[in-house]
Design brief:
heterodimer, A: 216 residues, alpha/beta, Rossmann fold, six-stranded mixed beta sheet, four-stranded antiparallel beta sheet, 8 helices, 10 strands, globular, B: 241 residues, mainly alpha, 2 domains, two-stranded antiparallel ribbon, 72% helix, 4% strand
Chain lengths: 216, 241
């Protein structure tokens, strides 16, 4: 069975510093893995590299069995990969919640009416139906994060990349997010420095240190 | 002024020289004199040994604006026919005027580039204040510099987030709407942030007070005087000859 994603001997230099150094990582369908590491260890860079927002200095990124090196390659792979940004404000950009959630399906060329119907259903599934017409910049931090996640789920991805998903969320908002994530059947790669999070998601753990992954 | 080297801190001489040069170049009427001004400005710009890519990048911005003018002026100014293009007639007067504007704008762009390429932008506000520019204007300039950077960063991160959600710009309604949202969202966020910065500034004890600067040095005065002489020379040449 082909891995959802397969990173082979990835090296990445930035500003004369080696951020990733011969890193190997494979994620099977439905597998959950947490990458832990200190601030600045390269966790975010690793996630960005998977969706092609960053390119390796050397090494290979293989997504669903297809080696990806150009923007065109990554463009084909991106609909199947949902990326939850660390700062929700970077992710939400539409005036209202419903428009932001419908943005993904519209990118996948789903007809307008159906895209909004899907977005609406997704919000209802998250218990966020009442927020549909709210301006995104007026939401609370927890609501923003959930709306971001709804915007990813509605695209029906096979893989989720989560960058510090519970960061800056209170206990309750964090728990809600984790409930939704635990209902997700696909594969999951989580970058976090929260020691409790991997267990709550039933995810394996690897440590990112000095540009390589260690431990199980 | 992004990526400035920051080696020049007292920007008062630069600012004064820029105003003098702008006044003189704007006053030029005759093509040969404007051409001479352009040549001199190019000479100064090259003598400063700039990063050629940055220089070309800056000039490309200017040329982009000029292009429309260069194309339309020859055909829209009345005068003696120079050549015909289908039903359109280009005039000598129009072509001359287009060339004059091209020379003047580029001379000014090169002058500004030479003066400010190595300027430390953080010192701009202080230098303006020391020149007696009203505090409100100084503050506007400083905040503009600060916020245009953060807004640009925000714009870059959001367009990446859009790409990560499989957005592909195309000629369709969805792209137009999304681009509108992107720009509107960036502005909205920039306003919010500006308000927070303002609040944080107030909490730390009120407004930005520009630090005082020592008097300008003698070499600075010499440079300003030579720019003034050059500027006057060009205007005289333009009027007298």
């Amino acid at each position: 069975m082909t891995a959802e994603l397969d990173l082979r001997a990835i090296t990445l230099d930035r500003d004369g510093r080696r951020v990733l150094d011969g890193l190997d990582l494979a994620l099977a369908a439905g597998e959950r893995l947490a990458i832990r590491g200190a601030n600045g260890a390269g966790k975010t860079t690793l996630l960005r590299l998977i969706v092609g927002l960053e390119r390796p200095t050397s090494g290979e990124v293989v997504l669903a069995g297809t080696p990806c090196s150009s923007e065109a390659d990554f463009r084909r792979a991106r609909p199947a990969i949902g990326f939850l940004f660390q700062d929700s404000d970077d992710q939400l950009f539409s005036p209202t919640v419903i428009e932001d959630v419908a943005f993904g399906p519209l990118n996948l060329r789903v007809p307008r009416k159906e895209a909004f119907a899907r977005a609406s259903a997704q919000l209802d599934a998250f218990g966020l139906g009442h927020l549909a017409d709210r301006p995104v910049h007026r939401l609370s931090g927890g609501e923003k994060r959930l709306v971001c996640l709804a915007g990813l789920f509605v695209m029906r991805p096979r893989v989720l990349l989560l960058d510090e998903p519970t960061n800056a969320l209170d206990e309750e908002a964090g728990a809600r997010l984790i409930d939704h994530l635990n209902a997700f059947p696909g594969a999951m790669l989580i970058a976090t420095h929260d020691p409790a999070l991997p267990a709550r998601l039933g995810a394996g753990q690897r440590l990112l240190r000095q540009g390589r992954l260690a431990g199980d | 002024m992004t990526g400035a080297q920051g080696s020049d801190r007292d920007l008062r001489p630069h600012l004064i020289a820029a105003v003098l040069a702008a006044l003189a170049i704007a006053a030029l009427h005759r093509l040969p004199v404007a051409l001479a001004a352009l040549t001199l400005a190019a000479g100064f710009a090259l003598a400063a040994r700039p990063d050629p890519r940055r220089l070309l990048h800056r000039l490309a911005h200017v040329e982009g604006f000029l292009l429309i003018l260069l194309v339309f002026l020859p055909f829209t100014t009345p005068g003696e026919a120079l050549f015909r293009l289908g039903p359109l007639t280009a005039t000598t007067e129009g072509a001359t005027r287009a060339l004059l504007i091209l020379c003047k704008v580029n001379a000014m762009a090169l002058t500004l580039f030479t003066l400010f390429d190595r300027a430390a932008v953080e010192w701009l506000g202080r230098s303006l204040a020391a020149l007696g520019v009203p505090a409100r204007f100084v503050r506007l300039t400083e905040l503009l510099l600060r916020h245009s950077h953060t807004a640009r960063d925000g714009l870059a991160r959001q367009s990446q987030a859009m790409r990560a959600r499989a957005f592909r710009p195309a000629t369709n309604l969805h792209t137009m709407i999304s681009t509108g949202h992107l720009i509107g969202g960036t502005l909205l966020r920039a306003f919010d942030r500006a308000e927070r910065v303002e609040e944080a500034m107030r909490l730390r004890g009120g407004s930005l007070a520009a630090a005082p600067m020592p008097p300008m040095t003698r070499p600075a005065w010499v440079r300003i005087t030579s720019v003034a002489v050059l500027a006057a020379g060009f205007v005289l040449a333009d009027r007298v000859a």
